[in-house]
Write a structure and sequence with these properties.
single chain; 2 domains; 56% helix; mainly alpha
């Protein structure tokens, strides 16, 4: 369904060049271009997430300090979600 990363890089470079040319010619303000980039990123991310969920029936595995999972939630400062403490598991940050 998705193209290779080379096609993606080529299409992204083309989109950036078109964005600069629109500002250079004076047809759009820079905010117009940045707004369209934001809308595009949100749209593509939503479609990719929907595709992943429909295909696998699961949520994508993402790690990071603000990401909640079914087993554990880590927040700044090392606090662990109550579900882990209630399950009797030791805290990982001790």
């Amino acid at each position: 369904m998705f193209l290779s990363w080379r096609w993606g890089a080529a299409l992204l470079a083309g989109a950036v060049l078109i964005g600069f040319s629109r500002v250079h010619v004076g047809v759009h303000y820079p905010g117009d271009i940045l707004g369209s980039v934001l809308v595009s990123v949100i749209g593509v991310g939503s479609v990719a997430l929907l595709h992943f969920r429909l295909r696998t029936g699961a949520q994508p595995s993402v790690t990071g300090p603000f990401v909640a999972s079914s087993r554990r939630m880590v927040v700044p400062g090392g606090a662990v979600a109550r579900s882990e403490a209630a399950a009797g598991r030791p805290r990982a940050d001790l």
